[in-house]
Structures are given as C-alpha cells and as structure tokens.
C-alpha cells in the first residue's frame, strides 16, 4: 500500500520537488478546509438559535449539553480555520478538523439510522440541506482531506521546501 508521501515522490522523483508538491497540496487542503470551517462558523454565529435548534434536532444530547455544544462549536471552527490559514499548529488543527467531521458523520449516521428527516445544520438556515448521502459524502471528503493534510503537514514544511541546505542539495 502506497502512503501519500510515496505517491507524491512517484509524481516528483526529486526529493525537493516532492516536498514542493506535498507543500502545495497541503496548503490547498488547508485553504479548502479553512474556508469550509469559517463559512460554517459565521453561519452559526450569525444565527445561534437556529444552530441550537439544529443541535437539538439530532436528538443526541440534552438541553444543557446542547447549549454548550451550540456555544462552543462555532468558535472552535473559527479558531481551527484561522490556524489552518495562518499555518499555526497545523497538525493539531488538522487533527481537530478530523475529529469535528468524524463527530459530524457519526451524528448524521445516527440520525439517518433513527429515521430523522432533519437539516444538517452545516451552513445555517439559508442553505439548509437535509441529511443524507450527499451530506455524508461532504463530511467524509472533509475527514479524508483533514487526514491527508495532517500527513502532508508532517512531511512538508516551508523550511524544507525553500531551503536547499535542508535537502542536501547545493545551488
């Protein structure tokens, strides 16, 4: 089984070129995930009562826990999005992004299994999608992107890409 790092090396045999490709892919993933998280965060912060009602609609948590989740999640999404954009604590941000989407997928699967026909609550009331295969695919893709981003963030960094001394090459 090929790891993402091996796949990138196959695309760019030169180690420095492979790191550049890995870094570019990692940054693209960070941008996409950050925009997704920040967009969702702003929708939840802009209409907190709708988000709270969405949390309750999943019928997983009680009243008090629901209020805590609805108050905490939008700020966590915003913080993670900013960290991904700013390259601060990148691997940790990817890990938290993965956890958020894993929990989101589990909540959706649970609601679908119980026959609930509810909005996913992803982007507020204006873009209310019903939970289903489409929302599960989006969540799964985001979870996969976060996982790949975490792997690439470990193997590629700006210093390794731009510094010829770090790769053992001379100009």
Supply the number of structural domains: 1
Class based on secondary structure composition and strand pairing: mainly alpha
Radius of gyration: 19 Å
- Give the integer mean of the pLDDT values: 85
Largest sheet: none
In terms of quaternary structure, the protein is single chain
Terminus-to-terminus distance: 35 Å
Strand content range: under 5%
Question: What can be said about this structure in brief?
Answer:
This protein has helices at residues 4-11, 15-46, 48-57, 63-86, 90-113, 133-155, 158-162. The chain has one domain. It has 171 residues and is an all-alpha fold.
Please give a structural write-up.
The protein has 171 residues and is mainly alpha-helical. It has one domain (15-156). It contains 7 helices and no strands. It has helices spanning 4-11, 15-46, 48-57, 63-86, 90-113, 133-155, 158-162. Helix 4 packs antiparallel against helix 5. The chain is elongated, with a radius of gyration of 19 Å. The protein starts with a helix and ends in a 9-residue tail after the last helix. 29% of the residues are buried. The model is unreliable at 163-171 (pLDDT under 50).
């Amino acid at each position: 089984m090929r790891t993402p790092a091996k796949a990138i090396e196959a695309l760019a045999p030169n180690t420095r070129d492979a790191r550049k490709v890995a870094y570019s892919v990692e940054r693209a993933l960070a941008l996409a995930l950050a925009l997704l998280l920040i967009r969702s965060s702003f929708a939840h912060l802009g209409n907190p009562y709708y988000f709270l009602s969405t949390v309750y609609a999943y019928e997983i948590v009680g009243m008090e826990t629901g209020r805590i989740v609805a108050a905490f999640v939008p700020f966590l999404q915003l913080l993670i999005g900013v960290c991904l954009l700013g390259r601060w604590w990148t691997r940790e941000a990817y890990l938290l992004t993965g956890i958020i989407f894993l929990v989101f997928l589990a909540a959706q699967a649970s609601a679908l299994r119980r026959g609930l026909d509810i909005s996913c609550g992803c982007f507020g009331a204006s873009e209310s999608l019903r939970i289903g295969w489409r929302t599960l695919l989006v969540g799964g893709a985001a979870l996969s992107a976060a996982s790949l981003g975490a792997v690439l963030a470990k193997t590629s960094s700006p210093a390794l890409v731009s510094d010829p001394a770090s790769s053992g090459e001379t100009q």
